[in-house]
Specification:
8-stranded mixed beta sheet, 0% helix, 53% strand
């Protein structure tokens, strides 16, 4: 996998405080928890060099290990 590759994160589980997002590429395996109050915890880094995006209402973009600002849709 290369830095130019893009993967989509989908919501696997959620509660009133946080979301679990997983990468749609089986070979990647990235999993992150996004706290609704702010904050991000990487559970499995997956393909560190691929860019990742996904969510509901907000789009979270991650790439090359550097989080980008969260945008409203």
């Amino acid at each position: 996998m290369t830095a130019s590759e893009h993967h989509t994160m989908t919501i696997e589980a959620e509660n009133s405080h946080e979301l679990l997002l997983t990468c749609d590429k089986e070979a990647c395996g990235r999993r992150v928890v996004v706290k609704r109050a702010g904050g991000l915890v990487v559970i499995d880094k997956g393909d560190f060099f691929a860019t990742h995006s996904g969510g509901r209402g907000l789009t979270l973009r991650l790439g090359a290990g550097q989080p980008a600002p969260v945008e409203s849709n």
